[in-house]
Amino acid sequence: MPGPLANIMQLQNKVKTKRISSYDRTGGNKDFIRLAPGETVELASIEGAGIVKHIWMTLNTQDKFIRRNAVLRMYWDGEEEPSVLSPLGDFFGQGWGEEYNFASLPLAAAPHQGRALNCYFPMPFGAGARITLENDSESELASLYYYIDYERHESIPDSLGRFHAWWNRELTEVRPEEGETEWGVVAPQGNNATDRHNYVFADIEGKGHFVGLNYYVDSPGPMWYGEGDDMWLIDGEDWPGSLHGTGTEDFFNSSWCPNEVYSHPYFGYARVPDKLGWMGRTHCYRFLLEDPVYFDKSLRASIEHGHDNSLTLDLATVAYWYQAEPHKPFPAIANREGRANMKPIGFMDVHRWRHAWRQSMGGGATLWGDETKTEKKE
């Protein structure tokens, strides 16, 4: 299997290296553009055939949530429907509008404080490419610096799939017959012999291969969120499908309920919470660069939110894949309110939960927290 440097010495014929950037056309040092509130700007419009090789961006604005309020779109070969549709931050590996360092092979958020956004996914096109950014904010985007580095080719073979990325988000619902539980702590749990209630992170039609996932989970409770199995139904097959996982952390190449920052070129945990248990925000990532998931007609990829879909979680994902065009159009991206974060759960919320539990236990004077109704202390 060739490594990333395997062909670096190969001389190319009729390939030209090009760049579109925000440099100051006057020769000055104002090497940025501005976006007014609500404005969409065309960052690149390229004719002919080529391959986008690298994208770098950094930005400055009064809107502290700009990484969710700015929306990135990419179009290949004159299509009207975008092949890439995602909030800017989520695409580059920055969840919840936050800024933090993130390092992987195809994507990175580099210092200072993760504010330099980089993408190395190659993006081929045969008949033009267009990249836009929408400032869906009430604040001016005061400065946007960017590079879009690409190669111009005489032609691109049809065998090169077009790059796609899709952001999805869902506040997951628990099964009413079981309630919210995990590991059977508060109620028995059933078996899940279907993907019907799973969180879906890819719903693709056409021929292609799946190459990566950024997974942002915000858990309102301290219970481990990752008993959910990943499930892949290829070309319309029935459950359990060709690939069936054993737990969320297993799919992300880790083990035993991790809660620590870890960076590998292909997988890792770029952000973890420091609250009670696994309460709060965790960013997991996995890039299937050595082991893509291939499909000829369709792919439905999903993951349980807790075993048997037992947990309420705020899940957001960006899936990355290549496929032959045309692609199935994406649903309209959630509006600004629909992209907003859930309210953080804090220590006072936990104390209110304790108060409600004390009341349910009869309000005894020395209740500690591990009693059951049959053994409560007065």
UniProtKB/TrEMBL annotation:
Organism listed in the record: Paenibacillus antri
InterPro entries documented for this protein: DUF2961
One protein family per Pfam: DUF2961
Domain of life: Bacteria
Record-given protein name: DUF2961 domain-containing protein
Gene3D superfamilies: 2.60.120.1390
